[in-house]
Amino acid sequence: MAFNSLPNEILAQICSCLCFHCRNPGMFPNSNTKESRMDKITLARLCRASKMLCSFAQPVLFHYYATGNLARSVRTDFQEYNRSWDVEYWNFEDDKLPAFLRSLITRPDLALCVKSLQLQGFGDQDLCSPELMRLLFNAGNALNFKPPAGWRWKGWAEEPEDWSDYEPPTNRTYIVSYENFHPDFLDFHDWLRALAIALTPRTEMLMYICEGLSELDSFKETKTVLPALKTLALRGANDEDYFLSSIHPLLTVAPNLETLYALDCNGVKNSPSRYSLVAKGDMWIENLAVNKVHKLVLDEIPPAVFEKLIERFVQLEDLEYYIYSWANYPNIMQAISPTKGRLRRLCFGYLPPPAPGHYESRLPDNDYATITSLQEFTQLEELVIDQALLYRKSDGPKGTILVTLLPSIRRIHLTYVYKSMYEDLMSLAHEAPRSFPNLRSLKIGLSSPIPPNRIAEIEKMKAVESTFVSMGVHVSWAEDLKGPFLYTAIPGGAPGLTVTHVPASSGVWE
């Protein structure tokens, strides 16, 4: 049967099946995997087959734009005292961003079809004709976007004296070994990324890979409004980071943001001098407009900053927080106390490096506060927590998990379990029908590898499963490896990579 004779509903369904965005709601699309690239190519070919097929395929083709050069490989080796594992290496590759922008500008109807963007700041040099440069300039000017340094109608200025009124950027490391590589290229590409965001007002999900975020200052004077943007994922590039306060200009034009992934927002690599000034917290969160955010995922920041940051999220219901060092272990109960009447999900854990030795050797010796009770968090339904945050190394069975939990709990995920908690788990199983009537799922992630002296007790602990099942609680087991790749905390954040996942992201469980 020819395509032209198929019912419209079938044609629309075929196109949706070729769209990563349509098939995977809530996950960021990519152009890294072979399947994603082939689906895009197929949709593009359908657009060229006939006008009728184009009318169905082209809007779906523009559902998402994903930069073509996200991570290609990851170095997983470990060096002590240097968080150097899982550093990405990116290929130089043309991401076709200028061509994508040309389509958005000349076909505003297609710009309204874009639902998801994944934008990266580093790639091959953008080559633009004078006509395209003028088109980009006019579109940016209409939105009050200031042109980047080095702008000229025929391309980029060759000499510093031709840089118009702008100072040459000094906060980048430029690659000078490539012939005709202009030092303003990176700023220009950042400007293109900001323009892509501004031109797609119906974008619902945005992943932004950044180095510094100064380009977002363009949004301070812009006419842009992004009412549809619900999910924003920020992360560093090339082992770089940024300051969380730098995203304020973008937040102000996204008034309905609900989910924020703020990874690599420590800022110490971006500017050590500024880091020392803001480490107390006030400047870190200055003017941060997050009053509608329900879910926050971030990694280690100074404890004082973490406490003040949580105070700004007045509607927070879902929190994930990861630390790399026990020196920056916050008083988690004090920090999240402002959320006790509304927090529904809490995920808190230590991400151990892939260092030699067993997981237990990375833990401190009894000099940190464990989580002793969540009784005040009356809405809490899901808890994802390291065993080490409930029990110190010297702690024996003491009923901790029973006094920690509350009747509203539905799902428990214990991560990096390195020693037996058989007695406490058996007590929990027997108490579940009476004290925890809503409990439906228990997942136990065993730290791997298990030390030889712990194998027998861990095997005995597995016997709790039958007791839980008899009480109507589903039990599942997982293997938690050291050196998890942070960006797996973002749905679709590490496509096509063979890396260790953050335990909370390792799969859907009931």
Automatic annotation (TrEMBL):
InterPro entries: LRR_dom_sf. This is F-box domain-containing protein. It comes from Pseudogymnoascus verrucosus.
